[in-house]
Amino acid sequence: MAHRALAVDRAGAAHPVGTCKVVNGTGTIGYRLRLAVANISQIRLQSTDAVLIGTL
């Protein structure tokens, strides 16, 4: 299943960073980070039926 990948900044704004394909619970994504790492609070993977959140 494909998930939309978003980097969420400390102000709560979501910035699209690409798509992550998850198969059997595993997936990877690589992207060029256009925000300072210190300004990112979460990475979200969103699909039509799920949201996965990684908090930094």
Notes on the protein architecture:
- By secondary structure, this protein is mainly beta.
- The chain has strands spanning about 1-10, 15-20, 40-45, 50-55.
User: What's the number of extended β-strand segments?
Assistant: 4
C-alpha end-to-end distance: 24 Å
Task: Provide the spatial order of strands within the biggest beta sheet.
Answer: 2-1-3-4
Helix % is under 10%
Low-pLDDT parts are: none
Structural class: mainly beta
Major sheet summary line: 4 strands, antiparallel
Structure annotation, total helices? 0
Mean pLDDT: 89
Radius of gyration: 11 Å
| Strand residue percentage | over 45%
The gross shape turns out to be globular
Secondary-structure element pattern, one letter each = EEEE
SSE layout:
Elements: E1 2-9, E2 14-21, E3 40-46, E4 51-55
Antiparallel strand pairs: 1-2, 1-3, 3-4
Question: Which characteristics define this entry?
Answer:
56 residues, mainly beta, 4 strands
Summarize this, please?
This protein is mainly β.
